[in-house]
């Protein structure tokens, strides 16, 4: 290893920024030289650039600006762009996050170039290969040199797939680190006033391919959301992905529906914190509502984050069951997590990851105790 090794972080979408911020900060405190590659997978400034400011991330060393497109076109553009940047900077380790196409492309580029990689949020599985994200997770974990798991079930999945235990570290969830850091700034009142919405409201975030990529699925989903809106006003920060399809299906501004542009990190979490209910198909929002104690209905047949159901406030629903489930959640009132919060979701995942990476760069291998992970 070189005397002053370089770590590059590849970020492409909102959840990547949120997970990376605590890791970048903690590595910086350990004196590790690092840089960020922003792929531009989320090309909307409100879906990416604002997160750099909200989360205190440094300016990227490269911005590929790949934008949207089919999975093939987007991944192809990412492969070409990432290869050029990685070759230019010659990193000692590349860290990838989550399960987006930027993550997959980076892991493939590095595998071909022989550059070591680390995957933050390894081992999550929905066991539904019809989800593009599930394919990305499996490929990424199979090629990574360091795997950072956010929950105990992830350890079981990786072991079942034959990943050597020495590569895997249970570190907790860096997304929760970011949430803890942001908590003092999370005030719903200014956002509610700016959006001119009632004090009691719901929030919906919807973009998964299974929900929005066909007219039939989008129509069923929008019909269910409009039924929920008859029970409580609902705010929908619209993701660029699926925007047109959902609008065509009838998701437009109305008396009880407010469709808005994407929000920055602090504004969005402030809105969620004050909500009576959240409807989503996002993975990260399931985790954030678990920590904030907000009732969450996830419109999917499965989740790669079952811990948000066993330890949190999340429930899986179909579009057909969504209105009734919303009615029950609203009548039950404020949610509380089921028992203890998930293990190691304590705001210290970033430093744990940083210690492992720093030790790995020096040729050491930290034991769980040295990482700060308590024994079970």
From TrEMBL:
Carries keyword Isomerase?
Answer: yes
Q: Which domain of life is it from?
A: Bacteria
Keywords for the protein's UniProt record, in alphabetical order: Isomerase
GO MF entry, a single one: UDP-N-acetylglucosamine 2-epimerase activity
* Enzyme class name: isomerase
Which Enzyme Commission number(s) are on file for it? 5.1.3.14
Return the CDD domains for the record. GTB_UDP-GlcNAc_2-Epimerase
Q: Where is the UDP-N-acetylglucosamine 2-epimerase domain?
A: 32-357
Which family does the UniProt entry place this protein in?
Belongs to the UDP-N-acetylglucosamine 2-epimerase family.
Q: What is this protein called?
A: Non-hydrolyzing UDP-N-acetylglucosamine 2-epimerase
Organism per entry: Nonomuraea guangzhouensis
């Amino acid at each position: 290893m070189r005397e002053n090794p370089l770590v590059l972080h590849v970020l492409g979408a909102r959840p990547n920024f949120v997970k990376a911020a605590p890791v970048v900060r903690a590595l910086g405190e350990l004196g590790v030289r690092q840089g960020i590659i922003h792929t531009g997978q989320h090309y909307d400034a409100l879906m990416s650039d604002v997160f750099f400011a909200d989360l205190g991330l440094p300016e990227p060393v490269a911005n590929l600006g790949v934008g949207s497109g089919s999975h093939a076109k987007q991944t192809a553009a990412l492969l070409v762009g990432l290869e050029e940047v990685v070759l230019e900077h010659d990193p000692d380790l590349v860290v990838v996050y989550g399960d987006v196409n930027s993550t997959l492309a980076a892991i493939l580029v590095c595998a071909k170039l022989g550059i070591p990689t680390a995957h933050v949020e390894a081992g999550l599985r929905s066991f539904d290969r019809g989800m593009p994200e599930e394919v990305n997770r499996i490929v990424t974990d199979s090629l990574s040199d360091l795997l950072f798991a956010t929950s105990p079930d992830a350890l079981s999945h990786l072991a079942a797939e034959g990943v050597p235990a020495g590569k895997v570290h249970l570190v907790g969830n860096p997304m929760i680190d970011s949430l803890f850091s942001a908590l003092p700034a999370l005030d719903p009142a200014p956002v509610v006033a700016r959006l001119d919405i009632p004090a009691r409201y719901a929030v919906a975030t919807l973009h998964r391919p299974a929900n929005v990529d066909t007219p039939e699925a989008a129509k069923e989903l929008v019909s269910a959301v409009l039924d929920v809106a008859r029970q409580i006003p609902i705010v929908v920060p619209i993701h660029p992905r699926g925007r047109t399809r959902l609008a065509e299906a009838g998701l437009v501004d109305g008396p009880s529906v407010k469709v808005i542009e994407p929000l920055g990190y602090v504004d969005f979490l402030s809105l969620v914190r004050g909500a009576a209910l959240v409807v989503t198909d996002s993975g990260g929002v399931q985790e954030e509502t678990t920590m904030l104690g907000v009732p969450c209905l996830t419109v999917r047949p499965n989740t790669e984050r079952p811990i948000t159901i066993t330890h949190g406030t999340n429930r899986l629903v179909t579009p057909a069951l969504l209105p009734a489930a919303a009615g029950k959640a609203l009548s039950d009132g404020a949610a509380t997590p089921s028992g203890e919060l998930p293990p190691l979701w304590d705001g210290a995942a970033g430093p744990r990851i940083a210690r492992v990476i720093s030790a790995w760069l020096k040729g050491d291998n930290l034991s769980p105790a040295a990482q700060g992970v308590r024994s079970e």
